[in-house]
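Worked example 3 (structure in, sequence out).
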């Protein structure tokens, strides 16, 4: 592993002051909450919903940074886990009065229950994690583009099940009329949780072991690191986060269909990670913010001039430009110096 990345990974050490980093993080969260409160009062409902979508996209980018950036995996499977999480949460929270007619194949105990958002969200994350654990042992034996193709196939398999399992998922029609439990506060809280977990993992012995596997798996194994276990752990944690993001997004827009979370979404999330820097949390946040704003801002332009897909062309061009000028992304595998000093509670030499 490069010397600079090793120094960044040691940001939390016995000589660090964790309380300082915690206070700084708490202050940032409080300031962000105040800004969100002001924005929610002064902006339109549409704009506030777009901000919530931005937070969820940022959380997805950070979760993929944990899976792909820290361990060097090339997984495209996030939309599959999002679909699983979205359908699980949707079935649990759907109106019990409508389940019998719209989802006739549900077991009686499930058809007669109607859950609130929090337990449904937790079960959705658990479902995504269990699926990732079940397939991880086989899929993660692959590397590079072979793994990418395998996880891409997972998206197709999950979409096919959702399309053909009419009695449970309503097939291609999807499940509409979901309770709109999720607002900007849910989305922001989820983003804070994902960033906190990913940051804590990255700047710990576990994160250093993951980055060692990414840099040289053979050398990591010779050092006593169980590379296979770390890969599965990163894959499962990322899947849990993705499944929860899918559940939140479904209850933000009040509908889920088999094609809601597509291959195109997988491309967008990977672009966010690559542009920000594979392994950089702040890079993923910044890239997700810019790409989401650009994509949503160009939608009216696409509709007015009939150039549908213009936003995707621009995103692809930005990816090519970044790869040409700075192949490691905006921040590489590290974090900006100011951010490391602020949140690690460690004075740089």
């Amino acid at each position: 592993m490069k010397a600079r990345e090793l120094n960044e990974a040691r940001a939390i050490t016995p000589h660090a002051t964790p309380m300082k980093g915690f206070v700084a993080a708490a202050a940032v969260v409080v300031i962000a909450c105040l800004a969100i409160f002001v924005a929610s009062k002064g902006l339109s409902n549409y704009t506030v919903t777009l901000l919530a979508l931005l937070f969820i996209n940022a959380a997805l980018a950070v979760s993929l940074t944990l899976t792909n950036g820290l361990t060097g995996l090339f997984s495209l499977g996030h939309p599959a886990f999002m679909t699983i999480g979205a359908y699980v949460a949707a079935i649990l929270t759907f109106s019990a009065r409508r389940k019998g007619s719209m989802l006739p194949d549900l077991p009686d105990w499930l058809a007669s229950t109607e859950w609130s958002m929090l337990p449904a969200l937790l079960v959705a994350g658990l479902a995504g994690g269990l699926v990732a654990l079940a397939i991880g042992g086989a899929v993660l034996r692959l590397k590079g583009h072979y793994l990418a193709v395998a996880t891409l196939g997972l998206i197709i398999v999950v979409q096919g099940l959702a399309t053909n399992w009419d009695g449970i998922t309503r097939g291609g029609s999807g499940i509409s009329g979901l309770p709109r439990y999720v607002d900007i506060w849910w989305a922001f809280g989820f983003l804070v949780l994902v960033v906190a977990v990913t940051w804590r993992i990255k700047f710990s012995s576990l994160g250093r072991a993951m980055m060692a596997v990414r840099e040289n798996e053979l050398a990591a194994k010779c050092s006593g690191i169980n590379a296979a276990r770390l890969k599965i752990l990163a894959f499962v944690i990322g899947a849990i986060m993705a499944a929860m993001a899918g559940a939140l997004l479904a209850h933000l827009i009040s509908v889920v269909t088999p094609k809601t979370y597509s291959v195109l979404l997988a491309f967008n999330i990977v672009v966010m990670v690559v542009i920000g820097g594979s392994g950089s949390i702040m890079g993923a946040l910044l890239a997700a913010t810019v790409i989401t704003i650009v994509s949503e801002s160009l939608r009216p332009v696409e509709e007015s001039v009939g150039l549908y897909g213009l936003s995707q062309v621009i995103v692809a061009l930005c990816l090519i430009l970044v790869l040409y000028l700075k192949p490691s992304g905006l921040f590489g595998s590290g974090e900006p110096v100011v951010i490391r000093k602020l949140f690690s509670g460690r004075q740089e030499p």
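Notes: The first strand starts at residue 175 and ends at 176. The two ends are 20 Å apart (CA to CA).
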